[in-house]
Specification:
By secondary structure, this protein is α+β, with helices and mostly antiparallel strands. It is built from 2 helices and 12 strands. The strands form 2 sheets. Strands 1, 2, 3, 4, 7, 8 and 9 form a 7-stranded antiparallel sheet that branches.
């Protein structure tokens, strides 16, 4: 009977069976963390842009609702049964400085096309903008396109669909305005609502 051979494995063979070492494991975990972090950042940016788009369309829809409310308003009857005054002017006010996360929806009681607190009545709740977003800028379309303004009143009056634009101080604006809604953490991600004098409402990115 032949004697049994004592077979020993070389250090190289043992190392091959040992699997990952501590350094390799740490490097692998680090790479996975970097990849997952990159994916999460891109996903959050995509989600933020998608919600911002919805917020912008919601504001544009509110503007359209005020336009339709003004055009379809009904005259109130006076005491003698004749047709009374049309309470038919509705508007929205934006203030980029004092109300970056809100806008006011109002009915014009004194027909000056400017929201006057204590005189004009608010329609429903104050318009709210998600805290992640803000009114980045307001731009008038009738002068230098780089000229920004702090506030704007946009109103509509029966029987026309045309929009009327006034600053808080009563100064009129022709042509129209652009209102830019942006992410607070990255204001380069934004959508623009353009309202023209003819009452057209457009959204661009």
């Amino acid at each position: 009977m032949a004697p049994k051979k004592n077979i020993t494995q070389s250090p190289i063979a043992l190392n091959l069976k040992a699997g990952f070492g501590l350094i390799e494991l740490m490097v692998s975990i680090g790479i996975m963390v970097l990849v997952m972090s990159s994916i999460m950042v891109k996903q959050n940016a995509f989600d933020g842009a998608a919600v911002l788009r919805n917020q912008t369309y919601e504001i544009a829809l509110t503007i359209r609702e005020m336009q339709l409310s003004a055009v379809s308003s009904i005259a109130t009857s006076s005491a003698d049964g004749s047709s009374g005054n049309y309470r038919n002017t509705y508007g929205l006010r934006f203030d980029q400085v004092d109300l970056p996360n809100h806008y006011e929806i109002w009915q014009d009681e004194n027909n000056n096309h400017v929201y006057d607190s204590g005189v004009d009545s608010l329609v429903g709740k104050q318009g709210s903008i998600d805290p992640r977003f803000m009114v980045k800028s307001i731009k008038r379309l009738d002068t230098d396109p780089d000229l920004l303004i702090d506030d704007i009143n946009i109103s509509f009056k029966r029987p026309n669909f045309d929009a009327i634009f006034r600053r808080d101080n009563g100064d009129p604006i022709s042509e129209g305005v652009e209102i830019v809604i942006a992410l607070k953490r990255d204001d380069n991600v934004s959508y623009t609502i353009e309202i023209t004098q003819a009452g057209q409402i457009n959204i661009t990115q």
